[in-house]
Specification:
Length: 497
């Protein structure tokens, strides 16, 4: 007798092949059979009319601390995410003392949590306080640089400091991290030379990890930034993941044609180069970073591209939630100041932890990047404040509803591959991202006729329609559309789940 049998589902294996009508048997945390299953089970689920797909793997998460402080991670599991890869854009979780300073604008960890020196401690903390989903980690370059150099230093590291950084990265990889991330528009990573990044990435390459980057420029310098990113992977000897592939600022729209061409050329040379994307024309980041990178000044908008004040929405303003949801333009008008001056006044009054959503991308570019076979899906979600960017709650159902069912940009089987099997392969997550005997029972069941996001910029903290059931390691974390509060997740290790 099986623990659970899901009957009459349209099963998509996560391999990019079309779905088949089949049952799925689960014992413990594993799938044990797929096909016609005659054996009885302790629990049955009739999935008639539903697609059964591998649980979605969010390759671009910033929930490093949130999986510990808010272990339901509701915004993720309701949309079918069963695994998050944290530590993106250089913002890593270890060492925890440096991480708490580095990640202050994104999230905070409760002071009662035991601190950890390295990634072995962080992953152990996840297992000791399991969330509702699985957690894999990238080593964050910002955090190790801050720890090794004693803060934000606008210089190259000394040989001893670089050796310390390499040692920290090596520890993370030995602990099971899946790679290294950088965020070369943010402090302190923006002060790093290419040679520094190559040196620390060599520790990743030696342990079969990958290099993941929020690149140095997503505006007018996009193509040079792609070349640098690919070059770092080539020099260090590891695969590359380009984070949230896009071109920002109207003057840069269309450049993704060329950046995709650079990816194709690297792949033709035998390199493992891929990218991820969220399905929106607005990014979300720190207001301080936009100002620092020249987004509101004269010219092209600098490394983060141009957005006008009326394209910038306040998502999180610590201590002043009443300002959340307002545009920067509203302050320009209220204070009779230029955009950059208004932004600086907000920062001076409310601190550098102000988070915003900033439009500035082209929908045609979004579709082009999405359709390209190098692209997988990630939320880049920042679920902080009363008006977070809706990608934190709506990314995966938006893909399935808007871009698969309504627009046909992706086929259903291709979209599922990009959300499951593709990231599992890229990030070396063994027995994840697949529905087959022997795979872990991470499964999302959704209605392909009704699935859609309901999170908007005006009302972002809403779960989707059409995703009634989510299973993590054989346990329901969402059942009949409701969170069960099951703590079914665990820490995942590179190629050893």
């Amino acid at each position: 007798m099986h623990d659970l049998v899901i009957r009459n589902a349209t099963v998509h294996a996560g391999s990019g092949t079309p779905g088949i009508s089949a049952d799925i048997a689960i014992d413990g945390d594993r799938i044990v059979a797929v096909g016609q299953i005659d054996e009885d089970a302790i629990e049955h689920l009739d999935a008639s009319g539903l697609v059964a797909a591998p649980g979605f793997i969010d390759v671009h998460s910033h929930d490093d601390f949130q999986v510990l402080t808010e272990p339901d991670v509701t915004h993720n599991v309701l949309q079918g995410i069963t695994t998050v890869i944290v530590g993106n854009c250089g913002f890593g979780a270890a060492p925890s003392d440096a991480a708490q300073v580095q990640m202050k604008a994104i999230q905070e960890v409760d002071s009662t949590f035991k601190l950890w020196a390295g990634y072995s401690g962080y992953l152990e903390a996840v297992d000791q306080n399991p969330p509702s989903l699985n957690v894999a980690a990238l080593v964050g370059h910002h955090t190790v640089r801050r720890a090794a150099m004693g803060g934000v230093e606008k210089r190259a590291p000394t040989p001893d400091e670089l050796a310390t950084m390499r040692k920290m990265v090596a520890e993370g990889m030995e602990a099971g991290a899946v790679g290294l991330s950088t965020g070369l528009v943010y402090e302190p990573g923006r002060y790093s030379e290419t040679s520094e990044v190559v040196a620390v990435a060599e520790e990743v390459a030696a342990r079969s990890g990958i290099y993941v980057s929020h690149m140095r420029n997503e505006g007018d310098g996009l193509l040079d930034a792609v070349r640098e990113t690919i070059g770092i992977g080539s020099s260090a000897g590891c695969g590359v993941e380009i984070s949230h592939h896009k071109a920002v600022g109207a003057e840069n729209w269309g450049k993704v044609t060329q950046s995709l061409g650079l990816i194709e050329a690297a792949q033709a040379d035998g390199m493992d180069v891929t990218a991820d994307q969220y399905p929106y024309t607005a990014r979300s980041t720190m207001l301080f970073a936009l100002v620092q990178n020249g987004t509101f000044g004269s010219g092209s908008g600098g490394a983060m591209g141009r957005s006008s004040p009326d394209e910038v929405l306040l998502c999180s303003v610590p201590g002043a939630s009443g300002l959340e949801g307002r545009t920067l333009q509203s302050f320009v008008e209220e204070w009779d100041l230029p955009g950059e001056d208004a932004a600086n006044r907000l920062l001076s009054e409310h601190g550098n932890e102000v988070l915003v959503a900033a439009f500035g991308m082209d929908e045609g570019d979004v579709r082009m990047v999405m359709a390209h076979p190098s692209t997988m899906i990630g939320t880049d979600g920042l679920d902080r404040g009363s008006k977070p960017h809706p990608r934190a709650w709506g990314t995966y159902p938006r893909i399935l509803g808007k871009y698969v069912r309504e627009e046909g940009i992706l086929s259903l089987e291709d979209a599922i591959w990009r959300m499951s099997g593709f990231p599992a392969k890229k990030f070396s997550l063994k027995d994840r991202g697949a529905i087959r005997p022997g795979a872990f029972a991470d499964i999302v069941l959704f209605d392909p006729k009704t699935v859609i996001d309901s999170a908007t910029f005006e009302d972002p903290r809403n779960g989707p329609d059409g995703i009634p059931h989510v299973i993590v390691n054989g346990k329901f974390v969402v059942k009949d559309g409701k969170h069960t509060h099951a703590r079914a997740g665990r820490a995942l290790h590179r190629a050893d789940s």
